[in-house]
Design brief:
seven-stranded antiparallel sheet, alpha+beta
Length: about 425
Amino acid sequence: MSDTTFYYIIGGLAAILAVLLFNSYKEKRYRDEVRRQFGHSDQDALLDSKREEVRDGQGVLNQGMMHHQHSQAAADEALFDVEPDTVNKIQAAVEQDAVVFDVVNPTAEFEPEATEPVENEAQPVASAPKSIKDLAVPGIKNVLSAANKSEAGLLLDLQDLTRMELPWFDNRVDYMAYVSLREARELHTMPRLSNRHHFRVVGCTMDGRFQLAEPIPSVYYQGFVMGLQCISRKGLAAREDLTQFAEQVRQFASQMGAGVAVANADAFMQVAEPMDELCVRVDQTIAIHLVSRESVSGREIKAALESLKFELDAGIFWYRDVHGKNLFNAVNLDSTPFIAAALDDQAYRGFSMLYDLTKVPAGEKTFNQFMDLVVKLSSHLGLDLVDDQLNELSTQWLKDIRSYVVERQDEMLSVDIEPGSELAERLFS
């Protein structure tokens, strides 16, 4: 080998080494920048960053990284167009006592055939509760009128029942009906009130306590409060669903020889429709993909996730809070479940981290925690953070997503829907 050839080889190797070192430097700079913005293993993410102002919802997303789950999303409208008037619509409808009740008292005879509903003048119900999380269950003795109870022959006064605030219901979401018995009775079977939407039946026992009704022998009820959940990821219930529910309740009341009050459907929809519009807009899941340039073993993924306290359950790795509530999750890139028995011997392209903003506590802190976990996993496994087209995510995009999450959660809080609460779980189930 001549000296010239030798120098050419050395020069080529040096050039290759320089390219490798430059690429490594670029990757390290990117990861350091992400870590600087969103935290790292020994500090909380973004705790030292200035809180950004709530944005108008425009132009936050990049290449389909947010998944909309609510069935009522309008395909013809921009995903992030915010209708600021929606909250005002909800509040105005509630403040105007929009939900009224049609009260029906069957005759003293208990035969269904002899019972003819008599529509009384609609009476306004008290304003719907803004939130169900802090409501106390009132004792029935505190709300009953002895005179009305005696005159109507009912154990519970229907008008008083319509004004009660019970923690199982929200008048903006649940289409309500109330049943008062003439004599205490057992509940032998649960009434079938809908085959399309979830409903609840709450009973008032003889000691004046309200509880979820169950057909238990020797448990006698004075009356029932029933609610049809009209807003969920199935979409807003149709008027026909409300009509069917009301008819089923009336049939149940007739069989029990009871009086019944059913919410006015038109008035209820004045509140429910803007509430559903808001739910459509905020029902978003953030997806961040962690992808290997070649492949990563399932054993490594499992070890990395479990080291950060993720637990595999039903094919998904879940991150839970101290109370065991699910917060974030990691799923396979191809949406197939992670199988515990196959993880050790299988290679993967990567996985996706999901953040359902309706299901986790509101605020930057929770999203920062999510991003901190993402960055730790990315760094530990040597994975890139990419969008659906495998383009690397910029730190600016990640900061915009954080702002978007805060904005949507603030919008929920403005109508007293606390992200991660029981009401949120119902609305976004």
